[in-house]
């Protein structure tokens, strides 16, 4: 287990880019890196944010905003959040997933009666049912990576890359439709996130295999990772391949994460790094596990805790502020010196992480 202390990395957002979301920088839920650019997603918007490294520094700024609705179809348009919970880069695509979850209203009301009434309401936001990939290509003139609705494939000038998404009906997508009759997961689709309901909070891509980590449900202490493969219906829409046992559209992997759910996933060579934390909305241990040899796993798996190595331990008991600094997203990171490490962002950041208007501290850990 790595015990070296982290190096702070300043992420400087421009609050003017999101005048209706001034605390966007405190709601980052997923991230990944291409060159000197960081791509970040929030659980409060339907946009992807790009920050770029300041030369020679552990600081990213030059904030650019990309609306997902400009690249793929969003059933509710660009006024409703996607609840972005996973980002990954594979070849020339940026992959993004929403949580695919229901949410319960917060009891924010002036009277007890209204607060209790709000707690009884559950909301289905259709943009949350999103799994998409968007071409991401380096601009030779600026050196920055850009998103495209369609563009020439840098690896094959005769081929065009297109932004595309998993087919959905508006209220769901083909993944959640396929899971409705699942003996393990089906009943949890009607339970809100953070209440052990179905909640995607991790995305990793290994060639043609896509892994979706579930924060919930956790079944008798066992976390779940879904594995899917995709096939194109058109240039802009794909569906699920029959990839699981007996022709199922998915595989299920069950992992003993010590009662924790998945908070993020990261492909690392043949392995899968799993950020694990509490399913409920509370303080608790967060661990980064390594599941070795995932690329060679050709069937559904049950993985005992002693088969997983611990890479990082985020011990909440060492935090000066309770209720803050929950590790939420992790990605491969090349620091200013060009060394490989891991970059971690936090949910509910404490005061020590907030740096002026739009600034927040992430942590880089040696790898």
Characterize the structure shown.
With 367 residues, the protein is mainly beta. It is built from 2 helices and 28 strands. It has helices at 112-119, 174-179, and strands spanning 7-12, 28-34, 37-42, 47-53, 59-67, 84-90, 93-98, 103-104, 122-123, 131-138, 145-147, 150-153, 156-162, 164-166, 199-206, 209-216, 222-228, 230-232, 237-240, 251-256, 261-268, 271-277, 286-291, 302-303, 309-314, 326-334, 340-347, 359-366. An 8-stranded mixed sheet has the order 2-3-4-5-1-28-27-26, with no helix packed on it. Strands 6, 7, 10, 11, 14, 18 and 19 form a 7-stranded mixed sheet that branches. A hairpin with a 4-residue loop joins β18 and β19. The longest helix has 8 residues, at 112-119.
**Helical residue percent?**
under 10%
The geometry reads as globular
Global Rg: 20 Å
Structural class: mainly beta
Mean pLDDT: 94
Low-pLDDT residue spans: none
- Note the beta-strand portion: over 45%
Distance between the termini: 10 Å
For the secondary structure, the number of strands is 28
- Spatial strand order of the main sheet: 2-3-4-5-1-28-27-26
Order of helices and strands: EEEEEEEEHEEEEEEHEEEEEEEEEEEEEE
Largest sheet: 8 strands, mixed
The number of distinct helices, counting runs of at least 4 residues, comes to 2
């Amino acid at each position: 287990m790595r015990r070296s202390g982290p190096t702070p990395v300043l992420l400087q957002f421009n609050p003017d880019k999101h005048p209706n979301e001034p605390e966007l920088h405190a709601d980052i839920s997923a991230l990944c890196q291409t060159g000197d650019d960081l791509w970040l997603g929030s659980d409060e918007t339907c946009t992807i944010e790009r920050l770029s490294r300041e030369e020679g520094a552990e600081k990213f700024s030059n904030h650019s905003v990309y609306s997902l609705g400009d690249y793929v179809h969003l059933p509710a348009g660009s006024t409703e959040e996607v609840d972005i919970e996973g980002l990954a880069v594979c070849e020339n695509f940026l992959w993004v997933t929403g949580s695919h979850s229901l949410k319960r209203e917060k009891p924010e009301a002036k009277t007890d009666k209204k607060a209790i009434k709000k707690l009884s309401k559950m909301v289905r936001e259709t943009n949350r049912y999103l799994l998409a990939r968007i071409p991401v290509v380096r601009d030779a003139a600026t050196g920055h990576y850009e998103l495209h609705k369609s563009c020439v494939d840098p690896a094959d000038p005769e081929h065009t890359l297109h932004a595309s998404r998993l087919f959905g009906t508006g209220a769901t997508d083909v993944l959640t439709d396929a899971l409705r009759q699942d003996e393990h997961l089906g009943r949890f689709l009607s339970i809100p996130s953070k209440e052990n309901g179905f909640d995607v909070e991790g995305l990793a891509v290994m060639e043609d295999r896509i892994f979706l980590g579930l924060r919930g449900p956790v079944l008798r202490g066992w976390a779940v990772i879904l594995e899917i493969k995709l096939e194109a219906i058109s240039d802009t829409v794909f569906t699920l391949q029959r990839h699981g046992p007996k022709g199922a559209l998915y595989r299920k992997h069950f992992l003993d994460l010590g009662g924790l759910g998945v908070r993020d996933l990261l492909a690392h060579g043949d392995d899968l790094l799993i950020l694990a934390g509490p399913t409920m909305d509370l303080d608790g241990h967060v661990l980064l596990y390594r599941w070795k040899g995932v690329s060679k796993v050709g069937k559904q798996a049950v993985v005992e805790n002693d088969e997983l190595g611990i890479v990082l331990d985020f011990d909440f008991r060492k935090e000066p502020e309770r209720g803050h600094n929950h590790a939420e997203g992790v990605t491969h990171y090349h620091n200013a010196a060009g060394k490989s490490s891991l970059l971690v962002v936090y949910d509910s950041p404490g005061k020590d992480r907030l740096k002026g208007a739009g600034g927040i501290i992430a942590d880089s850990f040696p790898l």
